[in-house]
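Sample intake — non-specific serine/threonine protein kinase
Collected from: Penstemon smallii
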Amino acid sequence: MKENQSMSLYPVSIALLILCSLITSSNGSNNYPAYLKSDVSINCGSSGTSAALNGKEWIGDIISSKSTSSLQVKGSSKISSLIHKLISSDPVPHKTARASSSEFSYMFHLSPGQKIIRLHFNPNPYKGFKKFKDLFTVEAGPFTLLSNFSASITARALGVNTITKEFCISIEENQPLNIVFSPDISPSQDVTYAFINGIEIVSVPEALTYFRGADLGAQVVGQKSLVYVDNSTALELIHRLKVKRDSFLSGDEFDMFGLGETVPKQTLTWKRPVDVGFRYLVRIHLCELGLKIAESGNVTFQVLINEMIVDTNIDIVKQRDENGNLRYRDYLVVIKGRKKEGQRDLLISLESNNEFMDRYGPFRGFEIFKLSNPDHSLASPNPLPPVMAVRHLPSWIIRDLVSLLGGRNLIATIAVTIISMVSIIVHELQKFREANLIEEETKPSARAERHCRRFSLTEIRSATRNFSNTFIIGKGGFGIVYKGLIDNGRETVAIKRLKSSSRQGKREFWTEIETLSEVRHINLVSLIGYCNEHREMILVYEYMTCGTLADHLYKLAKDSGENSSLTWKQRLNICIGAGQGLDYLHTGQRIIHRDVKSSNILLDEKFISKVSDFGLAKPEDRSNSQSHVSTNVKGTPGYFDPYYISTHKLTRKSDTYAFGVVLLEVLCGRPAMDRRVGEDECYLTKWARNKINMGEVDQIVDSSLIGEISPDSLKVFVGIAERCLDDEPKKRPTMAQVVLQLEFALEQQESRNQNQVTSVADETILPINTEQLTEASSESIDRANRQRVYTEPPAPNKDVRKPKMYKTSRFWTWDALWKRRKVSRNKEIVPNSLSDVVLQKYDLATIAAATNQFSSFNKIGAGGFRSVYKAVLPTGQIAAVKMFPELSGLALNDFESMILLISKLQHRNIIKTLGYCINGGMLLVYEFMENGSLDTHIFDEVKRRLLHWPLRFEIIIGIARGIMYLHQNSAMKIIHRGVKPGNILLDTQMNPKISNFGDAITLEDDRSDVDTRVVGTIGYLAPECFAGTVSAMSDVYSFGIVVLEIVSGRKNKGQYDIDLVELTWKHYRHVIIPELVDESIWGAFSEEEALRCIQVGILCTQQEPHHRPTISSVLQILLGLDSPQETQDKVATAFHKSKTECNESDTVSIDYPESPSPLASETYHNNEHNVMPDPFDDNAVSVEYEQHNATIP
């Protein structure tokens, strides 16, 4: 019977098996995505697979919309990348992101179990999204992980570059995990966005599970009860710390998480800040050796949390399982209070009656987790900048002290203790007094005290969060550099903490304070202040966002495996800036830096270079005629000047040599010393110079620059680097000469990038004799700056005549100049029609819209029938639009000729033209200069006080370089004819740019002057202009007037008609130099530089044009390339010639009216000369003369 029953059940079993098979097949053919069976790392905003620096692989989240992958992205979002390519952390996953101003989510199909979720944020500007506008909520399943979270604010408050948030939740069977990112509404109603750079999901090993349910509870600190953490709770990792490794756990599971910090061995109490209003799970991991110690009973110890004992060695032994194992102990801490209260410290302590052999006893490490509230939220407010608070000593210290003092003879013990304490206190007071005496003896000078802020140590600790490791941005033999926040977080600074144990460090510390308090330059890093309390030596600098030049050339490239992102033009500008800073030190302050290297050249957010680290700087002996300083050799290997090493004689040329090494680093993208390569290539100078000598320059160029550098720019750059590295210091150029050549290399590069309409078959850069440069005369400098030879194919029309000059209108008639191909002195071919000009052509409607229909609110300037408007171009760029109405007298062909002229001008000190309009009006579009014209600064009682001397001097140098470009280095020899403060515009960096080329003319190679009508502004016109003769020397005369105005702060013709030129000659003759300097900068200017400027003013304003120096000779004097005696001899000669001319001249001088008429429209006549109405009116744009009358339009 049983057999029959079993036989009858057999078909049923078969049927059930077939049914199960069908069900399984049906499920398998369904479109449900497969589970992610292993851990996953998502590199958001990327595709494919990427490898991090640690070798870990990350997958991209850009997938097909039809994909049935276990990962799906939903909602509206964009992929974006960093605006700035440089990042200080691992590029994977921090280089790309997924971001959106609306909600988006990730859906994962995971295997069931506990999962660690890590969210990675890099709060930097992304394309299409602004920094500090991120504000969003993150939800995972039913839990709110973050709310009103701003990664930017959090990173700034914590002083870190990237943020990683780690959570733990439980995933049920067939339950997809949705991680949702939702932008929140900001209080200011600004548009906010959410973003994410990387997501990691890691399975928690069963041995380390955090959700034990009813199996194992966590002991509540301060109570005897247990709390069971189950799957309905989410956890956020607050801190994870490992103090030692141990083989107790199979596979070392605790180390797999890898997000811990290392604690110094002397620490047995750990403080960790946690948010108020949450419960915390504290898990202490135990080691095998510690358990054996606990079991032996030879050492007794106890574990305390928030000063309450939670476990002893006896309790731990009792808790071991049946196998004798105990991997960790869990405790639950409640931090009561309101969330708005911020954070409190959670203390974990280990106490013992005996010293542990390895100091940490049973501790292997610990973790602190925040537990979600009943509303399933882990969110807490964004952190604020840290503020140091005074905390009282814990009560347990007093308790232990009493316990330690107790015993058999309490009174005697107390007496001995008091005597010992008094002795210690007296000793410490004596040390403190000695330290104060040392500090008093080494106080900075009064000038340094005025210019540098003295910080208290408390302020420094607050700024660096007690010198937290997370704030470290650099280390070296000198000490450690921290990023800090001062003034309640309003200003970010760099804080250098020198090693207090170094006696040499003390000298360098005070040297740097004294040096940087004396110097102020845009290309030198600014010292904000210092701290020298309690034997600390701390310097506070301006914070340089983009790090060091070395970072960009090879350090970050080495870490990330990618080439440097610096372009050749950026590198040239960085070198020019650093060179200008060194030139200022050498010539303006007579200081030798002594440690020039790429890691001491810092870059701000605009990649403006600044020389830093003046600890080894050495001032030249001003009382000694020798050009060197005898001293011990100090500096950095790889940058040492061979002459300095062999003779111990330090000169300015030692800095020049080191700068030559930096130039090679910039070109090659390699460090000065690299011990990872062979001996022949270890030293960059040796390897690179060998390659150059063998004609293999192309083999040393950084691979990222191949195809970008123009051959001409490369030749100039390599040439100047070679000359800097000459073994004989006398053959090396000065830093001023280096800067001039680097600017020429930049011009060569820019001329290639401009896509000019030229027909240049070949170009040769002639080498410059450095011996002549070192002992340069004005003629040799002038010649050196123009040693460019262009060869040109034969022109189709050999009948090239000189252009004719017409006098039928007040403007130069350019027809003859531009209607054929003009061969300039450099044999360049200039464009012959507007179709050849690479400028944006606008229509009138576009310009009208950009200027708000030429609204009076947009009007920023007017004069001479011309108006200037502020405009916002369609691209969003702010520009200036100059309108030339018909009343201005400018013909269309003259306007077109002017466009052709200015389209060729490309120089940092020449205003840049962005476009033009000729349909419906004549308009020019320029770059907008935020700081307006120079005259509004130097002639304003308030603003001129803000023009400190270094800035004035830089403006003078910039104007001179701009004029030299027009006279010598542009495609044509251009005379501006309008050099005056009103035509010098200042950008955001107060960099001067020459503007207003409406009156400019050009000259042929074989002519030095030309006869023409006089056009210009009275007070700046050279004497020969009144006779109708104009030359390059006319601009030099005007420049001399401008220099004197900048130095003195006076107008050339000001109150009571004081003639500034006459006043200068008079005071100089009687050696009353201070009277020629603006009183607002008395006591805060370089006497040497001011004297050179006044001497230049005298030389430039000589009556005879041929007595004046060329503009290149002027620049040579200003930069200190001429010796003081040479310059003084030239001035003495000028005075002698002036006296001779006054005795012998029979010319009629121009007399100005005693009471200038306010009526600009009147015309005055005189039989012998012209008398002008109100010639010093600032509103007069130009003055022209027709035979015997003068008018001011």
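Post-analysis note: The domain at 549-789 is CATH 1.10.510.10 (Transferase(Phosphotransferase); domain 1).
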